């Protein structure tokens, strides 16, 4: 072998070895998750209960995984827009969903416009059950739920209007079911999220609203802009003990509802990446300061879970509760 040939051979061998090393880098990099910022999708506008909760969690999760967690708000369609945003992204764990039974279960089961099914999502971890409350505009002469229901019956010829975060949400179903229960039909007015629905109520656009509790409701009540009449929960966190429970009503004491929420990923996301997210979520749930913040926002905080089997069991429980709710209000699922 001549000197020139030997030099060319060594150059070729070096390039081949280098190429082999470089080819192996992407596979090595993929073993480290996450290696870039994550997107936390909230299916409602900024300022609502879901957004507040997501930002509390997002900061903690970011610290646990040592990457930034960017909260992205996509309001509209009772969560359909946000849900579709997650399902359109790769199933790689970098996009996850601040979801609830509204967007993951009710919307695809009731709304023909939904192009996905609940099973397109996987639950990574539960986070909390939100307290649902009934609020009325300040001009309505009632200081309790029972008095408000009496007012509603007196206006059958002109049904009272109520705001929710959207069509076919649990709040919409509750409003229709409550009206049927007391024999006074209500007129539903859907908004793109809790924040605009609250603004509509405070501005007198609607007579009442059924929404997840937020601590800002109390200050608005003190300002005389609205009244919080009841929580539909069986019990409440300590910071909400001032709100009457539905069990205190004489007319509908058993009209109990709450809304479960958690972090969901697209079906097909690698198990090891879901486990990273679950661990970070569990670390957030274990922090006393985060639990206290969530409880102040009316949320019964979930206990951390250890594995996907537990998450799948909870997913099935949510599905069962939603199916029971749909049957209970006499609705038909989408074809």
Automatic annotation (TrEMBL):
Domain of life: Bacteria
InterPro entries: BUG, Bug_dom1, TAT_signal
Species of origin: Cupriavidus basilensis
The protein's name: Tricarboxylate transport protein TctC
Keywords annotated in UniProt: Signal
Range of residues in the leader sequence: 1-29
UniProt family annotation: Belongs to the UPF0065 (bug) family.
Keyword Ribosomal protein part of the UniProt annotation: no
